[in-house]
Specification:
It is built from 14 helices and four strands. Bound molecules: zinc ion (2 copies).
C-alpha cells in the first residue's frame, strides 16, 4: 500500500476488508429519477436564455442563487468531500449534520453513496475499477471524447452501484450520517423549496417565488452539477501536473472559483487528506478558507493543513516550473 493509499484509508475510515465488495444494482426508479434531475435543470438553462433576455435577472434572484450555490456547493466540497470522504478535519455534531444536509441539497446523491463512489475513484484512479475515468476507452481523440462524456455524466447511469458497506462502513454505522442519507428526498425537496420561499417572502409575491425557484433552484442546480462533474472529467484530462500521482489528475485554474478550489485536483490526488487543495498563493481555494473560518470559530478541529515539507515532497521535481 502506498503512502497515499494508507493516508486515504486508515483502518477507521477506508474500505472495510471484512465487508466484501458485493456488486449492487441500481433500480429503474433510481435511473428515471436521475434523468429527471439532469434534464429538468438543463431545460431550465435552455429556457433561461429567452427569460433573461425578456425580463432580465433581478438582483434579488442573483443574490438568492449565489447564496444557494455557496451553501450547497460548500456542502459538497467541504462536507461530502474534504470531511466525510477524506477526514481532513473533525467536526462538532451539529456542524457534521449540517454539512451532510447542505451537501445532500446539491442533489448529487445521498451522502454515503457519494462518499463510496468517491473513495472508489481514489482507490482506482484512472485504472480499471475507477467509476468515472475519462481514459477508460483509450487515448485517441475518439476514445477520449467518449471518455469525456462518460466521466462527466454517463457513469451516473452505470447499473452497478458502489458498495456503501465496503467503501464507507464507518458512515453506514454512524446514526447521524445514516439518517441524513436515508432522508435524501427531504433535502432534495428543501433544495427546491427554500429558494422559492425566500424569493416569495422577499418580494411578497408568487412571481418572486417562481423566478427564485427558476434561477436559485433549477439553474443553480444545473451549474453546480456540471462544475462538480467537470472535476471528474476536465480535471482528469487537461491542466497542469506539478505533483506526483499515479493517475492523470490535473490542476485547472479556470475552474477554481466556481468549484470552490476543488479544481486544484492534481495536488488533491497527491495528498488526498489535505484540507487545502490550492497550495500556492494565488490558487484560490474557497473551501479551505471556509474550513479555516470554521476552525477559528472552533466548529471544527484537527484540521490537516499541509506543511511546506509535504508539498515539496509531493512535487514532481524540486523547483519545477511545471
Ligand atoms: Zn480525481
Ligand atoms: Zn477526493
Amino acid at each position: 500500500m502506498s503512502i497515499t493509499e494508507s493516508l486515504l484509508a486508515p483502518a477507521s475510515e477506508g474500505p472495510d476488508a471484512s465487508e466484501p465488495e458485493v456488486p449492487e444494482r441500481k433500480s429503474w426508479t433510481e435511473q428515471i429519477t436521475l434523468t429527471l434531475f439532469l434534464v429538468i435543470p438543463f431545460a431550465a438553462v435552455v429556457a433561461a436564455v429567452p427569460v433573461a433576455w425578456g425580463w432580465g435577472l433581478t438582483w434579488r434572484d442573483a443574490v438568492i442563487a449565489t447564496f444557494m450555490y455557496f451553501l450547497t456547493g460548500l456542502g459538497v466540497t467541504v462536507g461530502f468531500h474534504r470531511y466525510l470522504t477524506h477526514r481532513s478535519f473533525q467536526a462538532k455534531r451539529p456542524v457534521r449534520v449540517a454539512l451532510a444536509i447542505f451537501g445532500s441539497m446539491a442533489i448529487q446523491g445521498s451522502a454515503i453513496q457519494w462518499v463510496a463512489d468517491h473513495r472508489r475513484h481514489h482507490r482506482f484512479s484512472d485504472r480499471e475499477g475507477d467509476p468515472h475515468s475519462p481514459w477508460r476507452y483509450g487515448t485517441d481523440v475518439k476514445a477520449l471524447s467518449k471518455g469525456f462524456f462518460y466521466s462527466h455524466v454517463g457513469w451516473l447511469y452505470d447499473w452497478d452501484k458502489t458498495s456503501e458497506a465496503h467503501y464507507a462502513p464507518e458512515l453506514v454505522a454512524d446514526a447521524d450520517i445514516n439518517w441524513v442519507s436515508r432522508k435524501f428526498t427531504w433535502w432534495v425537496t428543501a433544495s427546491l423549496l427554500i429558494p422559492a420561499f425566500i424569493g416569495g417572502m422577499w418580494s411578497w409575491s408568487w412571481q418572486g417565488a417562481l423566478t427564485a425557484f427558476f434561477w436559485a433552484g433549477l439553474v443553480r442546480i444545473f451549474l453546480l452539477h456540471h462544475v462538480t462533474f467537470a472535476i471528474n472529467s476536465v480535471c482528469h484530462i487537461t491542466g497542469r501536473r506539478p505533483f506526483k500521482t499515479r493517475d492523470r489528475s490535473q490542476n485547472v485554474w479556470w475552474l477554481a472559483i466556481l468549484s470552490f478550489g476543488e479544481s486544484w485536483h492534481n495536488f488533491h490526488h497527491a495528498e488526498p487528506t489535505s484540507a487545502r487543495h490550492g497550495v500556492r498563493l494565488f490558487e484560490i481555494d474557497t473551501s479551505a478558507i471556509t474550513i479555516k473560518l470554521m476552525e477559528k470559530l472552533r466548529w471544527v478541529s484537527d484540521v490537516r493543513w499541509p506543511d511546506a515539507g509535504i508539498i515539496a515532497r509531493r512535487r514532481v521535481a524540486p523547483n519545477s516550473a511545471n
